[in-house]
């Protein structure tokens, strides 16, 4: 009966007492303290009405932030770009690789870039609350000051990233419309110059106005011609065609007809480039192109103002709700919790193993 007791004690020593003793030694004395600093912020749209005022109720209700923007910041915080900035500014690799840190907690000095990033992500926690739109970021450091510095720099870089993305989108939108406005203005100036050159070349202000005035003159001359013809008919009733009065009125009628023909020829002369109808057609085309360009310019100018207002609304800024704290006590490792959990898991594994062995022996028997 003594040999089974010795075997049982040896098994318990190997699978229970020794692991528990090592766990107590590590978490009780060897494991390095890790301090945690935390900060909370929300990403809010910038508006002209709220530039100097923060709507706390809107923030707490989730109306001030954008989930898409918060997720972008979340990914940026856990990216290599952020880690590289932290390492350059705070010498983070040296801090995590400090020889005074216990073996299992520190970063190997020869860790690759990928291993460094994985280690960093284990020491950084980013949580986004969809209800309140609040992002909580916490960082672990092996001394309180470093933990606080990490969170401060993460918040500062996140704000810079948010502003950079928002400003870039706003600038691109406004710059595009400004380019269209410049092109529209150049087009208007060109069409205006063409219209002025047309007027100077043809020595006419408005062929349309000239046509209307000549048409009015022709109408009055035709009325005068009708009156003269009526007068001749009246004279011819008692005078012959060779009478001086008849010959004089015939001369007046012929003169009026020549004037009417000349005026009409000026309006619709066949094959004449300087005819008013041709000039008016060209003039109307130039005028229409100028009006079209002016309308485009006014529309683009209105679109620019609208784009600037819309761009200002799309600008984001980071509202800090909780400053990064300087921790006073180490939050990790949770020594007593880890030891108790390890003992419970060890006992459970031991008794499961013992039960399995007993079951196998029973089947053999």
Overall 3D geometry? rod-shaped
Strand order of the largest sheet: 2-3-1-4
| Count of alpha and pi helical runs | 11
Task: Identify the CATH class of the largest domain.
Answer: Alpha Beta
CATH architectural grouping of the largest domain:
2-Layer Sandwich
Domain module count: 2
Average predicted local confidence, pLDDT: 79
* Number of distinct beta strands: 4
The name CATH uses for the topology of the largest domain is: Alpha-Beta Plaits
SSE string: HEHHHHHEEHHHHEH
Rg estimate, integer Å: 47 Å
C-alpha end-to-end distance: 19 Å
How much helicity do the residues have? 55-70%
Which ranges are low-confidence, i.e. pLDDT below 50, for 5 or more consecutive residues? 48-65
The helix/strand class is: alpha+beta
% residues in beta strands: 5-15%
Question: Superfamily at the CATH H level of the largest domain?
Answer: EIF_2_alpha
Largest sheet: 4 strands, antiparallel
């Amino acid at each position: 009966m003594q040999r089974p007791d010795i075997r049982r004690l040896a098994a318990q020593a190997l699978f229970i007492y020794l692991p528990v003793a090592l766990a107590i030694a590590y978490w009780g004395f060897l494991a390095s303290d890790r301090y945690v600093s935390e900060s909370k912020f929300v990403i809010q749209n910038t508006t002209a009405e709220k530039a100097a005022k923060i709507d706390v109720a809107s923030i707490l209700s989730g109306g001030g932030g954008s989930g898409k923007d918060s997720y972008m910041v979340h990914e940026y915080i856990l990216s290599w770009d952020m880690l590289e900035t932290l390492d350059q500014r705070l010498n983070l690799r040296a801090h995590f690789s400090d020889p005074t840190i216990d073996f299992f907690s520190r970063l190997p000095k020869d860790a690759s870039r990928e291993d460094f990033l994985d280690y960093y992500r284990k020491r950084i926690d980013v949580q986004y609350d969809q209800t309140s739109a609040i992002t909580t970021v916490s960082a672990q450091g092996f001394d309180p000051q470093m933990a606080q510095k990490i969170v401060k720099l993460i918040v500062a870089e996140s704000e810079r990233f948010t502003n950079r993305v928002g400003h870039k989108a706003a600038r691109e939108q406004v710059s595009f419309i400004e380019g269209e406005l410049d092109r529209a203005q150049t087009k208007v100036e060109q069409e205006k110059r063409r219209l002025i050159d047309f007027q100077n070349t043809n020595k006419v202000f408005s062929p349309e106005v000239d046509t209307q005035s000549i048409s009015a003159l022709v109408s009055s001359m035709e009325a005068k011609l009708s009156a003269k013809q009526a007068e001749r008919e009246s004279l011819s009733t008692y005078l012959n065609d060779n009478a001086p009065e008849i010959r004089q009125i015939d001369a007046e009628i012929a003169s009026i007809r020549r004037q009417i023909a000349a005026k009409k020829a000026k309006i619709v002369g066949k094959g004449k480039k300087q005819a008013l109808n041709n000039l008016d057609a060209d003039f109307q085309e130039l005028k229409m192109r100028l009006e079209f360009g002016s309308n485009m310019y006014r529309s683009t100018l209105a679109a620019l103002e609208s784009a600037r207002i819309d761009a200002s609304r799309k600008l984001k800024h980071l509202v800090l709700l909780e400053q990064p704290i300087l921790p006073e006590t180490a939050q990790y490792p949770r020594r007593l919790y880890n030891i108790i959990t390890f003992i419970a898991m060890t006992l459970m594994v031991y008794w499961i193993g013992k039960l399995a062995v007993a079951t196998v022996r029973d089947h053999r028997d």
